[in-house]
Amino acid sequence: MSKTKRLLTPLESIQMAWGLKLRDFRQWCQPTTQALFDWKSRRLEGAIVVARTSMMDDVEAMLKSLQENQNDKASGDTSESGTSVYLPVMMTAISAIETPPDFDQLIPQPQWMPGVVPSDPLQRVIEFRTTPAAYRCQIAFFAPDPHSVSAISNQFVNFFKFEAKRQFDVFYEIGFAGEHIIRDAWNFRVVENSLYPDKADAGLKNMHIITVDCNITGLEPIVVGLGAEWDNVTDTGEPESSLPSNAGSGSGNTTGGGKPLPGFKPLPGHRTPSDVLGKYVIEADIKDTDLQGETRVSIDPDTHIITQTQVGDDTP
Length: 316
Prior knowledge:
By secondary structure, this protein is of the alpha+beta class. It has helices at residues 10-28, 34-41, 44-47, 59-69, 71-74, 146-159, 163-166, and strands at 48-50, 89-97, 109-115, 126-143, 167-177, 180-190, 198-200, 208-224, 244-245, 254-255, 283-287, 294-299, 306-311. The longest helix is centred in the first third of the chain and has 19 residues, at 10-28.
């Protein structure tokens, strides 16, 4: 399987981070009704469910999805009696906002910058740039009584008035060290100063629904030099084989094969060549001021095996 398919996409990374934030809210909020106490105590996969992006603003589609996936079993109930939907339940959908945030909200870094990713065990030299991104996040809370949806609504809004809760890290998967996936944390935050809950109707008298929307923004990293399979095609110039050429017959305007048609020259790239990226320190001495001697850390360039050796202060 291609390595590119093993790494999370930016949207998948956002979904995981947002799901963790909702888990934090569940443990933070106080259960003021028996239904909310049951929701806080239930197995996670039956309490918070991620909906498809296409279900945004469609609570009926969300409810149908819950029924089809039987969140009663996800909650730990293996009996076949009763409804397959355990209430209360929270569903969430996330959609990318195609219009980027204003420049005064987020300042991107569109040019390549050199650096080293702290979580890279090989400490390789990389290049990175950043792209501003915004996502719309929606939660829909389904409960059997109006008191529970009102309590969740009030506490959810209050949760994001706490500045520390409005910010959270998104861990992007940006490359490899052997089979090890390298992740890097980038900060996102909820933009709105106030959230406005809204009631929804699924046509059922014994079900009460509240929805709350918010937008989150942050910078997404684009990193080259960490062994991901797209490293050799990102801003490295046009492949000559991709230009219109004189190969074949007919008009001659085919792709690949012969020489490019007159006037077609490959556009150059702008990043550091691949043979320069990926460099790393193979030996370094670490001095602890409280101890005698030093720790020498070495990396075998071929096997990437890291060894540590204690040496004296005067060892060359």
